[in-house]
Amino acid sequence: MSSLPPERLAALNALPLDSTRDVVLYWQTMARRTRYNFALQHAVETARALGRPLVVLEALRAGYPWASARLHRFAIDGMADDAAAYARAGVAHHAYVEPEPGAGRGLLETLARRACVVVTDEFPEFFLPRMLAAAGRRLAALGVRLEAVDGNGLLPMRAAERAWPTAPHFRRMLQKRLPEHLTWFPAEDALAGARALPPLPDEARAWLDGVRALWPDAAAALLAAVTPEGARALAALPIDHDVPPVAFRGGAREGDAVLRGFVERKLGSYKARRNEAEDPSNSGLSPYLHWGFVSAHAVFAAVAEREDWTLDRLAPRPNGKREGWWGMGPDAEAFLDEVVTWRELSYNTAHHVEGHDTYASLPEWARATLAAHRADPRAELFARDALEAGATYDALWNATQGQLRADGRIHNYLRMLWGKKFLEWTADPEEALAHMLHLNNRWALDGRNPNSTSGITWVLGRYDHAWQERPVIGKVRPMSSVATARKIRVDGYVRRYGGRGAPG
Ligand SMILES: Cc1cc2nc3c(=O)[nH]c(=O)nc-3n(C[C@H](O)[C@H](O)[C@H](O)COP(=O)(O)OP(=O)(O)OC[C@H]3O[C@@H](n4cnc5c(N)ncnc54)[C@H](O)[C@@H]3O)c2cc1C
What's the first-to-final CA gap in the chain, in angstroms? Predict the structure, then answer.
């Protein structure tokens, strides 16, 4: 029925498909795009096989942790792009923005009652796994099958049967398993097959209108972004308004433009310039990848096209090396090592390591060395508020926090420095972890992602090895603002992001 690789499909309850019902429902939660979307493609193919219309539910809750004007605006930009794409394909799309926490309760079940099957996106982080497991049980009680599709990375998460502790280990496994999956890409236009679907019959349309009367579609003003009405509609939502929208747009259209711009203008200097503070050559894709506006497959396809690459360029055998396996140029290979190896290692950890965001999940050597230095005197302690305000004595660090507050992200290389200082400035490593998670997930557009947790736990030793022992941080890898400022030019960056103080 479906051209989905089997490892990408997980049944969230044991019920069979019920072909007597009226529609197929795609509950779009994390893959907020219509291009290169395995879950949507699977929903369309299932609807075609059953001869049923497709209905899409794309909702945004008000009560999730760190819900804010910033995150909502970015997500709603994406809903607007999706609404336009579904309208063009003649598919019913219900874009629902919860007006208050809990108001959306019952919406999924109401739509699911008419569904032969509900298809949704799998995502291994934040509240999503719990939400999907609970939905699987609730839909089972209604007799409805729930299927989750993993479109997160080039390698399905289930194709790696366990967690890998370091990037070299993971890379070697990836090089063995990936070739097969590089031939199994999602369709560029997941809605291509939707044009052949039957339209909603009048009776079903009336039913859907009834559902919309109870849970109204997101107001056009809210979807239409930066109009005064849109701003007022956003301001009326009960979310954190102290975290304001950023200056750039979310959504699949903008995500595709960012990807194209990167491949055309920056990829060619990625290796040499990705860590520069001035005009760096990084992609800026992480917020778009996180919200599912851009898929890993779209990124890979764009890079492969620019490199004029074909599958036969892969090295005949895995070499476990960062470069030389893909058969592309050095910049493309350096970029793929981040967006494939490191990113998918994060998803591997999130999928396989129970409690991967807890202190107890850190490698034993890291916990042991941090325990040995638990009582070391700290030169200076900062409360969470001072850290959040970027009010330390360290100008460069304050600027990184300033960038996080202003732009919802931090420069690639400086993000490591941002994380590393928490160990020095908090009473114990558990507090360092808690503060990092809170600040990153509250302010970063790409927060609440497997990469958030992996980056933050990397700061505390995950994926790394022991270094020379030092006070407070023990054998965990050190990083200082002074050394960073010697490595890259940061004056302009510090001025731009208002970092006051001295490098420390
Ligand atoms: C303390 C700390 C916190 C972090 N928090 C996040 C976060 O909340 N969300 C997030 O997406 N990344 C996070 N990272 C990882 C990394 O810093 C960002 O992914 C990267 O800076 C995003 O910028 P870019 O898209 O321009 O990256 P590029 O250099 O253009 O890389 C392309 C893509 O590769 C992936 N990638 C790059 N570096 C890493 C890495 N070290 N680990 C995993 N994947 C990577 C990302 O998906 C990124 O978008 C964190 C790192 C640290 C040290």
Answer: 60
Partner residues linked to 146 by β-bridges: 118
Q: Which amino acid is at 174?
A: L
Under 8 Å between Cβ of 428 and 374: yes
CA-based nearest residue to 446, from 407, 419, 402: 407
Evaluate whether the domain defined by 252-352 bears CATH number 3.30.450.20: no
**What is the 3-state secondary structure of 451-498?**
HHHHHHHHHCCCCCCCCCCECCCECCCCCCHHHHHHHCCCHHHHHHCC
Dump pLDDT digits (tens) for 481-502.
999 999 999 999 999 998 666 5
Contact between 239 and 72 (Cβ < 8 Å) = yes
Query: By alpha-carbon position, which residue is closest to atom 33 of ligand 1?
Result: 339
Q: For atom 20 of ligand 1, which residue has the closest CA?
A: 412
Q: How far apart are CA 288 and CA 305, in angstroms?
A: 20
Q: What is the 299 CA–ligand 1 centroid distance (Å)?
A: 14
Residue 478 and residue 457: Cα distance in Å, rounded?
A: 14
**Does ligand 1 come within 6 angstroms of the Cβ of 343?**
yes
- Which CATH code of 1.10.10.10, 3.40.50.620, 3.40.50.150, 3.10.450.50 fits the domain covering 6-155+198-217? 3.40.50.620
Contacts of 350 (CB under 8 A, 6+ apart): 124, 125, 356, 450, 453, 454
Give distance in angstroms: CA of 85 to centre of ligand 1.
Answer: 29
Q: Residues 407, 70: contact at Cβ < 8 Å?
A: no
| DSSP strand pairing (145-149 vs 115-121) | parallel
Task: Please state whether beta strands 9-11 and 145-149 pair in parallel, antiparallel, or not at all (unpaired).
Answer: antiparallel
Identify which of 457, 494, 269 has the alpha carbon closest to the alpha carbon of residue 363: 457
The model's pLDDT over 462-480, given as tens digits with 9 standing for 90+, comes to 999 999 999 999 999 999 9
Ligand 1 center to 350 CA (angstroms): 15
- DSSP H or E stretch at residue 9: strand 9-11
pTM strictly above 0.90:
yes
Domain locations in the chain? 6-155+198-217, 252-352, 359-496
Looking at the chain, the whole-number percentage of residues with pLDDT higher than 90 is 94
Rounded Cα gap, residues 153 and 29, in angstroms? 16
Protein residue whose Cα sits closest to atom 44 of ligand 1: 343
- C-alpha distances out from residue 59 to 120, 231, 395, Å: 12, 19, 40
3-state secondary structure of 54: strand
Fold entry, domain 359-496: DNA Cyclobutane Dipyrimidine Photolyase, subunit A; domain 3 (1.10.579)
Nearest CA-CA partner of 302 in 265, 273, 349, 272: 265
By the 8 A CB rule, do 358 and 348 touch?
Answer: no
